[in-house]
Specification:
50% of the residues lie in helices and 11% in strands. With 153 residues, it is mainly α. The protein has one domain: 3-Layer(aba) Sandwich (Rossmann fold). Strands 3-4-5 form a 3-stranded parallel beta sheet. It has a two-stranded parallel ribbon with strand order 1-2. Helix 1 runs parallel beside helix 2 and helix 1 runs parallel beside helix 6. The chain is globular.
Length: 153
């Protein structure tokens, strides 16, 4: 999946020279080899160590768009009106519900490029995605949370 993401980012940065990509990832030998193979010479793409929680919040606050493989930043993205492309093997239909400014796009290189291109070139589309609200937020009382933990023991 990372190969498809790197290929998509390369194509986007080849076309859109104003785009800067920051990738917080643990730089293992395998990832570095893949990055060098696909992204060599891409001056708009930067690799950084994974963020601590406060660094992540500051970074998300400044980001124009987030591409991730997890849905751990949905509520922050909603509050900041920042679109999130969630790249996962899981089918979009299987996710169900409204995910606010997040779009589950699968892991196809074509999907990654199409979504990025549309968000970069269509301001009205970007705004439409950015202001969507999370509909299916489940709220739990403290007693429900404690009961949930107790039933797992």
């Amino acid at each position: 999946m990372l190969k498809k993401i790197f290929q998509g980012l390369k194509q986007i940065t080849d076309i859109h020279k104003e785009v800067i990509v920051v990738i917080p990832i643990k730089l293992t030998a395998t990832i570095m080899e893949l990055a060098n193979e696909i992204l060599k010479g891409q001056q708009q793409i930067y690799f950084v160590q994974p963020f601590h929680i406060l660094e992540k919040q500051q970074f998300v606050n400044r980001a124009w768009l987030i591409i991730t493989d997890s849905s751990d930043c949905l509520e922050v993205a909603e509050a900041l009106h920042t679109p999130v492309l969630v790249v996962q093997e899981t089918s979009v239909k299987a996710m169900g519900g409204s995910h606010g400014p997040s779009v589950f796009i699968g892991s196809s290189k074509i999907q990654i490029i199409d979504w990025l291109t549309r968000l970069l070139t269509e301001a009205a589309f970007y705004e439409k995605i950015a202001v969507r609200k999370l509909v299916s937020k489940e709220k739990y009382t403290t007693d429900q949370i404690i009961q949930s933990f107790a039933s797992k023991e």
